[in-house]
Amino acid sequence: MWRAAELGVGFALRAVNERVPQAAPRLGAVSKTRPADMVIEAYGHGQRTFGDNYVQELLEKTSNPKILSSCPEIKWHFIGHLQKQNVNKLMAVPNLFMLQTVDLAKLADKVNSSWQKKGSTEKLTVMIQINTDGEDSKHGLPPSGTIAMVEHIKANCPSLEFVRLMTIGSFGHDLNQGPNPDFQVLVSLREELCKKLSIPADQVELNMGVSMDFQHAIEVGSTNVRIGNKTAAELAAPVAAAQER
């Protein structure tokens, strides 16, 4: 989350939301490394969706008595790379709502089995992560594997609900050269997927980019944005300066 001591969580949230068009209604707050009190404060200002990268940190945060009592409607997203040996631990997270980084059929099978054993009456929503730029340092399926992965989940994972495609994309793209091609790949993949499997386009959302390029991602077609601490501070700074004047 954001630097509450410097800006105030409520102030930072308002500053970010002023820069997020109504066309992108879902704002996810990245809460990794941030204390429980900051999560609770953001929750008090209306934020409901929070994302963490590390299983152990998420377990500690979500079992915190203050968060459990103060944030009954919180929705936790796991946004990091998930190793199969940590699946059972992740499935034990209270109020786990979404896994954003499914990129292997075997991982989907493991998550499905573990979620079934948990006995939840609701399906676990999942994103499929696509490595649109082919960088070895990034996780995700190659674009060519997208349709097969969706088919696998629909056919073999009854406790999972596929809802989105996601990509991080290349960093530092120069917008003077045109839209980020990685984002354009994901938009095209959705069109191909929906046509091939006869899925209405509005049932497949897109999650693209990271903090520093979320506005461009929205312009290209992202329906979900993920905001971290640095961006919130940078977005809030011009607002604070204007108020001081």
Automatic annotation (TrEMBL):
Residues 14-228 form the Alanine racemase N-terminal domain. The modification N6-(pyridoxal phosphate)lysine is found at K32. GO terms for molecular function: pyridoxal phosphate binding. Keywords: Pyridoxal phosphate. InterPro entries: Ala_racemase_N, PLP-binding_barrel, PyrdxlP_homeostasis. It comes from the Eukaryota. The keyword Disulfide bond does not apply. Its cofactor is pyridoxal 5'-phosphate. Pfam families: Ala_racemase_N. NCBIfam families: YggS family pyridoxal phosphate-dependent enzyme. Belongs to the pyridoxal phosphate-binding protein YggS/PROSC family. This is Pyridoxal phosphate homeostasis protein. The lineage of its organism: Eukaryota, Metazoa, Chordata, Craniata, Vertebrata.
